[in-house]
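>> received
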Amino acid sequence: MAITKAIIGKIHIAKSQLGMEDDIYRGMLARIAGVRSSKELNDRQAGAVLRELERLGFKPKPSTKSKGKPKNVSQLGPRIDKIEAQLTDMRLPWAYADALARQMYKVERVAWLKKAAQLDALIAALHVEQEKRGLFAQVEQLLELLGESDPNWQVDLEALPEGWERRRPILKSLVDTLTAAASSRGLL
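>> returned
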């Protein structure tokens, strides 16, 4: 299926923004999608080409139109309601769920997921994100309760591996340790 003129236009804007010569541009199309012209691209190939152009430095302007909630939400059933509730709880836009769908299933939108198992996996991924955010918030609250300016805690946090803020086992362990410390001081 051919792509829309808007997508072709976006690809051409990226080409111009990057200052690509025509032969280099066509070589990139051939390498990424096996075509010589953007008019020959299908949706999946166009997505791959746009990702490659972004990797090369193209900075797309954010859309002024909000993608927002899928239009066919009533046809997707209760799972989509759960996804919406999770996004609302974390104050995240639908674009976040769309990005997860793209990462997990190589489709551009949650609304394009057809299988219940795919929606269930997306719900599970959002649950993991909720849990990480909740644990990190607990760590921050406990540090504040314990007196975050205590230099001993700062040293301990600096000793943690890089990216500890996104690792559930580390966050759970920190919550347990900080809760025990707060309890032993009679703060809880």
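>> The mean pLDDT is 85.
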